[in-house]
Amino acid sequence: MSVFGNKRLTKKLSTWSALLVAAPLVLAGCGSSSEDEGVVTFRFANSPTALSLVRIADELGYWDNAGVRPEYVGPATAVPAVQLLDQGAIDIATGMFNNDIDGKVKGFKFTAIASSMLDLPDMPHMAYFTRAGSDITKENLKAIEGKTIGLSGSNSCTDLVIKRYLQNNGVDLNKVNFLELKNELIAPAIERGEVDLGVFHPPLVGVLQSQPDKFTQAFTSFEDWGPLGGQAPYVASNAWLQKYPQAAREFVGIIAKTANWANAHPKESAEIAGKTTGYPVEQTTNWHYAPNALLDKASLQLWWDLVEAVGEPLPGSENLKPEDVATNAFNPYAKSADLLESQDQNTAIVTEEQNDGIFKTPLVDIEGLEK
Predict the structure, then answer these.
(1) Are 324 and 291 found together in one domain?
(2) Are 153 and 159 in contact (CB under 8 A)?
(3) Please, what is the average pLDDT of the chain?
(4) Given phi > 0 = left and psi -120 to 50 = alpha, else beta, which region is 156?
(5) Is residue 330 within 8 Å of residue 252, measured between CB atoms?
(6) What is the pLDDT of residues 65-91, one digit of tens each?
(7) Where is the SsuA/THI5-like domain (predicted)?
């Protein structure tokens, strides 16, 4: 039976959807981070059906004896995560970098402190599926003209990447209908013939791959942005970073440790992805992550080009650069606060800390730093 025809799962997802809608009301009433017996908590904007290194680290027990620990709160939906960070409603979140650029233009006070996923041919950030037997293929992209693409959010990775890829391959975007749907509703819409091509992230990529009689993977995000793509860095409010800099350093270290573990154990990490998102563990897939959680300029800079090509850049965004938003200052595996030029400089797993504290950065004013 298709997972999308499973009534119990559908009911569960419907409940989650209701929670997502109500989430901003819950977030608005959250208090500030607190310390409990020396443990610093951080309120993390968490979606029940989204992958997260924070939740994978939880399953691995990495937070159990740490001096920093997550407190899961509802995800940012109606209000952007970077705005909630600025308002003090949450402490840490993750999301696509174009939202971070927009947030900086608007003057929100937050900083990107750790990297996230990258693209591999066999572990893409996104995959694009059609109904089995469709004439829409990588070799026949013009077939999408006059038809409908289902995606989970406008001005997001699900929207921008597919548009640029199609545009670069001669498709007239004005002849394509882009329909915004919740993630869990896109596959059923494909089955019913209401959507002709859907945009999916892990873990749903693996779920659809496990049903070749119903769905065909036409191509992936790797076709557009190659190995650089997918960066949705972990961002923290500057207020939290100023108050708990050592906790922030430990957070980044745990994210790095988790990313390295997930890359070395793709099967096990995919099973955890299924467990934490509610999908069948034998069907799910996970992302590939930037080693050591180190941030680089190239995989962040590509977002300016992407938004300029097919998005709606905010006036003033052209004056920003990656180092105005992100830093490696809190990463124990960094040799300086500077961003790497690219992930080509970050191919080896670092097991020993490369510094003994926090580097100075113009992005966050922390008293007492000498480096």
Answers:
(1) yes
(2) yes
(3) 88
(4) beta
(5) yes
(6) 999 999 999 766 668 899 999 999 999
(7) 56-268
Number of domains in the chain: 2
Query: Beta strand pairing status for 148-151 and 177-180?
Result: parallel
Q: How far apart are CA 161 and CA 180, in angstroms?
A: 15
Question: How many CA atoms lie within 13 Å of 236's alpha carbon, on the beta-carbon side?
Answer: 27
Distances (CA, A) of 347 to 6, 244, 290, 294, 340: 41, 30, 9, 10, 12
Q: Which residues contact 49 (CB under 8 A, 6 or more apart)?
A: 13, 16, 183, 184, 277, 278, 279
Query: What confidence tens digit (pLDDT) does each residue in 132-160 have?
Result: 999 999 999 999 999 999 998 888 899 99
Q: In what order do the strands lie in the sheet with 197-200?
A: 177-180, 148-151, 197-200, 127-131, 215-220
Segment 318-371, tens digit of pLDDT: 999 999 999 999 999 999 999 999 999 999 999 999 999 999 999 999 976 755
Amino acid identity at 265 = H
**pLDDT for res 27:** 39
Q: Are residues 96 and 204 in the same domain?
A: no
SS3 call for 131: strand
pLDDT 10s digits, 178-208: 999 988 899 999 999 999 999 999 888 999 9
For the record, the structure tokens of 357 come out as: 């504290």
Yes or no: say if 266 and 278 are a contact pair by the CB < 8 Å rule.
Answer: no
The structure tokens listed for 22 are 């109500």
CATH number at residue 13: 3.40.190.10
Query: Residue 75 in contact with residue 182, Cβ under 8 Å?
Result: no
Q: Are 144 and 358 spatial neighbours (Cβ–Cβ below 8 Å)?
A: no
Q: Residue 290 pLDDT more than 50? A: yes
pLDDT of amino acid 16:
33
CA 321 to CA 192: how far, in whole Å? Answer: 44
Buried b (16+ CB within 10 A) or exposed e, 93-116: bbbbbbbbbbbbbeebbbbbbbbb
Residue 257 pLDDT > 50: yes
* Backbone φ, ψ for residue 277 (5° rounding): -110, -10
Cα–Cα distance measured from residue 101 to residue 39, given in angstroms and rounded to the nearest whole number = 31
The number of angstroms, rounded, from the C-alpha of 306 to the middle of its chain's C-alpha atoms is 16
Distance spanning both ends of the chain, measured CA to CA? 58
Query: Which residues form the domain of 200?
Result: 127-220
Q: Within this chain, do residues 195 and 153 fall inside the same structural domain, yes or no? A: yes
